[in-house]
TrEMBL record:
Keyword Chloroplast: no
UniProt domain Enoyl reductase (ER): residue ranges: 10-343
Protein name per UniProt: Zinc-dependent alcohol dehydrogenase family protein
CDD domains (alphabetical): Zn_ADH6
Signal peptide: none
Origin: domain of life: Bacteria
Classification lineage: Bacteria, Thermotogati, Deinococcota, Deinococci, Deinococcales
SMART domains associated with the record: PKS_ER
Pfam families (alphabetical): ADH_N, ADH_zinc_N
Species of origin: Deinococcus rufus
């Protein structure tokens, strides 16, 4: 099969012909119909993820059709159209038994612990516990975004963030995760403030439901601006980028007893950022992490999409072929363009 492979961290990936994967006893092989290009893939390529072993094929936001099934798989068969969370739980550890597969102790992560979906085929383990059947009306490009950015944002806003209708929600960073959060928060009845340093992204956030936009490049004090427009601070705030400054702004922009959810990854030199704990203590703020969403939680999300309440397809900014994936991956840190880039031809 054709796959995008890198032999060293930070070295430019190339298209190679590599052996077709075979399913493990508890896994399947999926012919990839679409794969999102995510900043987490860029972090992996840069060497920020200790699970990656070289050579490596990136890609963790995927959807496609099952073409081979392991002997132990009972719930899926060849021909099924599926997607999968970017964290696949083993089903046996304590978090999995409690229904929290997104923090599994022995998790399978395509594109990180195993080769991923920047390829014609991808092998997926723990299939019965983690695959999600796709509605017939949902195309692969839309479904690919559900595995990471959209599903992660959905859980961050609705489950970890516990958003209630009428609450102010500040979203710091309007990339794929942030724009997903804007759309989801608005659909759930939140009053959304979108924060970014790019006017084009802020304009898209406004079209997706943001009531207020704040340009962090031209606004001297982002938390103060949020405090003013909300008359005391956001009830819920998300750092959807993953940077010490957006983390700090998110916490400082909360009202008393507000909730901060860290969604964007803080890795490498940013892995242990300073946090204004004096404000956390004095105002009894909550600091929460959010790491994907388990497969069993997908029906609520899929139901909202099916009813037209949410439209992940609106986030797709560019469709490319596998031959363009190297440029898309290596350029992720430039933060250029709007929306989600999707590979949909292989």
């Amino acid at each position: 099969m054709r796959a995008l492979v890198y032999e060293a961290f930070g070295a430019r990936p190339t298209i190679e012909t590599v052996p077709d994967p075979v399913p493990t006893p508890d896994g399947v092989v999926v012919q990839v119909g679409a794969s999102g290009v995510c900043r987490s893939d860029w972090h992996g390529w840069m060497g920020h993820d200790p699970d990656i072993r070289l050579p490596h094929v990136p890609g963790h936001e995927l959807a496609g059709t099952i073409v081979a099934v392991g002997a132990q798989v009972t719930s899926f068969r060849v021909g099924d159209r599926v997607t999968v969370p970017f964290v696949a739980g083993c089903g046996r550890c304590e978090p999995c038994r409690a229904g929290q597969q997104q923090v599994c102790h022995a998790q399978f992560q395509p594109g990180f612990t195993h080769w991923g979906s920047f390829a014609q085929f991808v092998a997926l383990g723990y299939a019965d516990q983690n695959l999600v059947r796709l509605p017939d009306a949902m195309d692969f490009a839309t479904a690919a975004s559900l595995g990471c950015r959209f599903a992660t944002s959905f859980r961050a806003v609705s489950q970890q963030g516990r958003l209630r209708g009428g609450e102010w929600v500040a979203v710091h960073g309007c990339g794929g995760v942030g724009l997903s959060a804007v759309m989801i928060a608005q659909a759930l009845g939140g009053r959304v403030i979108a924060v970014d340093i790019d006017d084009e992204r802020l304009a898209l956030a406004a079209r997706l439901g943001a009531e207020v936009t704040v340009n962090g490049r031209t606004t001297p004090d982002v938390p103060a601006a949020i405090m003013e427009v909300t008359d005391g601070g956001a009830h819920l705030s998300l750092d959807a980028l993953g940077h010490p400054q957006t983390l700090r702004n998110s916490v400082l922009g909360l009202r008393t007893r507000g909730r901060h959810v860290q969604v964007g990854l803080l890795l490498a030199d940013h892995a242990q950022p300073p946090v204004p704990m004096d404000r956390v203590i004095a105002r009894e703020l909550e600091l929460l992490g959010s790491h994907g969403m388990a497969a069993h939680a997908y029906p609520e999300l899929l139901g909202m999409i099916g009813r037209g309440v949410l439209n992940p397809a609106a986030l797709i900014g560019q469709r490319i072929g596998l031959d363009g994936a190297a440029d898309a991956l290596t350029g992720m840190d430039a933060f250029t363009g709007t929306g989600v880039t999707v590979i949909d031809s292989f």
